[in-house]
Specification:
The chain is globular, with a radius of gyration of 24 Å. Helix content is about 0%, strand content about 45%. It has two domains: about 100 residues, Immunoglobulins (Immunoglobulin-like), CATH 2.60.40; about 140 residues. Strands 13, 14, 15, 16, 17, 18, 19, 20, 21 and 22 form a ten-stranded antiparallel sheet that branches. Strands 1-6-8-9 form a four-stranded antiparallel sheet, with no helix packed on it. It is an all-beta fold. It contains one helix and 22 strands. The N terminus is likely disordered.
């Protein structure tokens, strides 16, 4: 059984000035709680099978303080519904500093055999759209309150998107925005939008996002639509055997992502 040990300490310094203007510099070291995770950091559970919480051990400078752990999220794991669930374990040391670790539980449907994992290249058919604006500079919307989108801005280059299979029907996508900011603008990984997704079925391979977001911009998508996956699509040049598409709306922008999977 895989065990993961987390340990951290920090040295804090305080500067105090007395009435005679002499300076003292007392320092102290505080040790954060060490966590030892029983089981795996990512656990997979078959749909309809009970989830057994393996627990976590907590120690502070060798002393077992497992009884002080506060666990949140374990009661939210729904084994009747495929998806991704997170359990957080937190504890506070003697100096009042708290720390935590997180376990992911993926509830999967073994009947789903469609596998979209792999390293993809964004097609130049991928694009970003902004809302049209009126004469006052306000974003235009239709009668239903939806944005009226301006002319698409094609991606300037091919970017890489990695999709990892966590369990049948459960995947991790490195960037739902197709690398637009991370790679295209060169802003770095904090500006990507990684996400865990859950596929609906073999006959309907469209997926739903169950967890994710962008740490730099904050938040998650507003709407996800137009998901298609056709591994039989083969362009005339025979370079790519499959195509995966989706559209994602985020903070007043629409990203239309087209992924080509290179021949392996």
């Amino acid at each position: 059984m895989k065990k993961i040990i987390y340990s951290l300490f920090v040295c804090l310094s305080l500067v105090m000035v007395s009435c005679d203007e002499s300076t003292q510099d007392p320092s102290f070291i505080t040790y954060y709680v060490d966590f030892e995770m029983n089981g795996d950091e990512i656990m997979t559970v078959e749909l309809g099978t009970p989830y057994v919480e393996p627990g976590v051990i907590a120690k502070e400078q060798g002393k077992d303080i497992t009884s002080t752990i506060v666990t949140t999220g374990a009661d939210k794991v729904d084994v009747s519904k495929a998806g991704v669930y997170f359990i957080t374990y937190s504890a506070t040391n003697v100096d009042g500093y708290s720390s935590e670790i997180t376990r992911m539980v993926a509830v999967y449907d073994p009947a789903i055999t469609t596998d979209i994992s792999g390293t993809y290249s964004t097609s130049l058919d991928s694009n970003r759209q902004m809302p049209q604006t009126n004469d006052e500079g306000e974003d235009m919307t239709d009668d239903g309150g939806n944005y009226v989108w301006d002319t698409p801005e094609p991606f300037s280059s091919n970017f890489s998107v990695v999709i990892e299979k966590i369990a049948p029907g459960i995947f991790h996508i490195s960037d739902m925005m197709g690398g637009y900011y991370d790679q295209g603008r060169g802003y770095g990984a904090a500006y990507a939008m990684p996400a865990y997704v859950s596929m609906k079925s073999n006959t309907d391979p469209a997926f739903t996002i169950v967890s994710g977001g962008t740490s730099a911009f904050g938040g998650m998508y507003d709407e996800l639509s137009g998901i298609t996956y056709n591994p039989d699509v083969t362009p005339a040049d025979d370079i790519y055997p499959g195509i995966l598409k989706w559209s994602i709306e985020y903070q007043g922008m629409l990203f239309n992502i087209v992924l080509d999977k290179p021949v392996e």
